[in-house]
Design goal:
The protein is of the alpha/beta class and 291 residues long. The protein has three domains: 1-84, Multidrug-efflux Transporter Regulator, Chain: A, Domain 2, CATH 1.10.1660; 85-166, Methionine synthase domain (Methyltransferase, Methionine Synthase (B12-binding Domains), Chain A, domain 1), CATH 1.10.1240.10; 169-288, Rossmann fold, CATH 3.40.50. 57% of the residues lie in helices and 11% in strands. It contains 13 helices and eight strands. It has helices at 6-13, 17-27, 44-58, 63-67, 71-84, 89-101, 104-118, 120-140, 146-165, 189-200, 214-224, 239-252, 281-288; strands at residues 3-4, 33-34, 40-43, 176-180, 204-207, 228-233, 257-262, 275-277. Helix 12 (239-252) links the parallel strand 6 and strand 7. Helix 3 (44-58) runs antiparallel to helix 6 (89-101). The protein is elongated, with a radius of gyration of 22 Å.
């Protein structure tokens, strides 16, 4: 389905273009097609193979030995290696392979293994976030379809929602938190993780989701009087527009602590009363743990 230049292959696999050329010439690891102007172009199958070969080679297996493996042997070696790892990095590339093939069953197995081995939160922050960043590269280069991107994003979303549902209900007098994304914001996975953290710490969370009209936010907050509002701004607003939006939040909810995640540039915004930039999930957890 995809078609990749050698530079795109380098970016996705982490293997230098020069090394890929050597693997082609000496070991026939992949045999790319050529355009009319003799430019190398690689397929999904080539990308998956390079990812798997790189994983084994980075863990001490000689390229000459890898070159002699059948596809089935290569897959078996990769599966065995990934299962024995005590770090999350090697799993990112395996998740990309699952996405390219739209292999839900294998994705489920990998995700479950990660949670058992590293815990839910570490799985999301150290594996799923970098994985989604790599998906962004694929999206920008036009090498995945909307179906592939939606497929994997919805699988991740479902996993976080199930994890949230598994947490106990808060005490009746728990501090209330409202979580929402502003209008034209649709990147929900980060906010869902914030929801998981807040509920896990015993807060009563009202999750309002993505693309929320401002008047709806005012209505909910007026009725339920939350102690904390959590939002995230990634795509819809930047610079002066983001500053204006946050100033409005601060004015309209002066007695409420407002936590803002998302775009790192928000950390450099002018100091705003009752508004705190949250760099990541660990920072949020540390902030909420004070209550």
């Amino acid at each position: 389905m995809g078609s990749y230049s050698i530079k795109e292959l380098e970016g996705l696999s982490g293997i230098k273009a020069h090394t890929i050329r050597i693997w082609e010439k000496r070991h026939k690891i992949v045999v790319p097609k050529r355009t009319a102007t003799n430019i190398r172009m690689y397929s999904d199958a080539d990308l998956k193979k390079i990812i798997n070969v790189a994983l084994l080679n980075n863990h001490g297996i000689k390229i000459s030995r890898i070159a002699g493996m059948s596809d089935a042997e290569l897959k078996k070696e990769v599966t065995g290696l990934a299962s024995s790892q005590n770090e999350t990095g090697p799993f990112i590339d395996q998740l990309i392979v699952c996405m390219i093939d739209m292999e839900e069953e294998q994705f489920e197995k990998l995700f479950s293994h990660l949670i058992i081995k590293f815990g839910f939160e570490k799985t999301i922050t150290e594996t799923i976030y970098p994985f989604l960043e790599k998906i962004g590269i694929l999206w920008q280069t036009g090498n995945i379809t909307p179906a592939q991107e939606h497929f994997v994003s919805n699988l991740v979303r479902q996993k976080i929602i199930v994890a949230i549902d598994s947490l106990p209900f808060p005490k009746p007098d728990a501090t209330k938190i409202v979580l929402f994304l502003p209008e034209h914001e649709f990147h929900e996975i980060g906010l869902l993780l914030y929801h998981y953290i807040a509920k896990g710490l015993g807060f009563k969370a009202y999750y309002l989701g993505q693309h929320l009209p401002y008047e709806d936010l005012r209505q909910v907050c007026g009725e339920h009087q939350p102690g904390i509002i959590i939002t995230s701004i990634i795509a819809s607003q930047g610079g002066q527009k983001a500053t204006g939006y946050l100033q409005k939040l601060g004015r309209d909810f002066p007695q409420t602590r407002i936590l803002v995640g998302g775009n790192p540039d928000l950390a450099t915004l002018p100091n705003l009363p009752n508004i705190t930039h949250i760099e990541n999930s660990m920072a949020l957890k540390a902030y909420l743990a004070k209550f």
